[in-house]
């Protein structure tokens, strides 16, 4: 035990009963055996946002297996494991003042736990205790000089991990060597399966036995297995993938192209689509969606009336407005259902989406389809909207973008679907031939060589959008973007509404998006396009890790890495966005 430790403890004891502002002096670095405690930021008063502390252990002391913590992807999974285990350790210590951050069902890159070449580090928030505006020094000493170092030792010292020999596959309390190894391996297997979808011509995969429905509308936990019908693939779409770990997975492959999911109401259509939506992220064991794997760029597209749009080329869908507005660069502060869905779609493609996920429940009908009688009554030149049913094939042939679509209410998409899957009491069947027979279409009619797909002029011609140099500089020079829960980001004086961004997971990921917006503000110079800026931010994140996105050199706060699609989605909803020209 070093002298610094007694310093911190005795300082805190001396501060007991004094006014809160005096706590500032405990900022600094303290050693407790193998654990280094960093007190990076001390809250100004008991009601301010919590103080920031870090604990760090060197690799030589931690002895965490190198083979599980060397590769970048493994470090993400191992940090995810340690975050979950860390919450269990805190629960056992019964120390509520220390906040490590609670992850959801996904295995994601976060700042809560850092694994680097030198060691392991946990970033915590702590509410330093007070009575009124007086420091509770003895309690603060317990938290910072007893429980915090004990937390770090239990979490990071491999020698102290619980590993009863009978623990494998059982309920070994975390952290355990087996738990860590299994977690890292599951993540590797999921990443490998995702990377192999492309070569198999697939944009999605749902493993047999998967549990897709969730416990409730506001819970991401799996429905209890006695209630849920486990997924089974139709034989025609079944694939088996042998992974290099020796693990082999069998399930339904969703091929590139246009796939339509049909079936009666309540038969599980939206549940499948939502599982694919979340299949862009790896999931923890026991989630039920471990083997639901999507194209990592897959993006949900919905109608979102009322949103702002800045300079989108939506002319593939909307043209000849009675107002004469040019829809090749369309802006509005209050988009309609169809316009907002068109904007969401072209923006998703701009952000790199190669697969679109669309549910009739959240679509504008006039954006999706127009029936024969309506086409007869209203001549094409009087109807500004070219419905999605007329664009879904050019989207594939011109842009290489696949679509998975839920449509229980209309047969309109049978003619343009490569595959039709019918759900019957949650069980999928392949019904492509029946659907094609009903509308007199054959698979060859849909092949790119048939000619019917390729109009004289391409439908999608969007030019790159280039934000101005000041596009993301609202007013002050200080930190301007801040997540307010998972639904909103405050940006300067504006609020960005995130509620319709289905693949944005939680507050911590919204905080990641907010940091990304601040980073983008530095990139935009009036020449760099949106797409280039998004690529730049991804390159930086890949090279430097998530810490690189913040200006901080110590405690970055709790952030989760967002996809570029979600960063773009937030940016596109910013009402102050300005473009060149
Ligand atoms: P649809 O979109 O076809 O109307 P949903 O996907 O909304 O149907 O599902 C309707 C209900 O059935 C939801 O409450 C959902 O949780 C439940 N459900 C969906 N899939 C399953 C399943 N595999 N097993 C049990 N319940 C399910
Ligand atoms: Mg539905």
From TrEMBL:
Domain MRB1590-like C-terminal: 482-579
InterPro entries associated with the record: ABC_ATPase_C (IPR046834), ABC_ATPase_put (IPR019195), ABC_N (IPR046833), MRB1590-like_C (IPR049069), P-loop_NTPase (IPR027417)
Stored Pfam families: ABC_ATPase, ABC_N, MRB1590_C
Domain ATPase of the ABC class C-terminal: from-to ranges: 179-440
Residue ranges occupied by any ATPase of the ABC class N-terminal domain in the UniProt entry: 7-155
Name under which the protein is recorded: Predicted ATPase of the ABC class
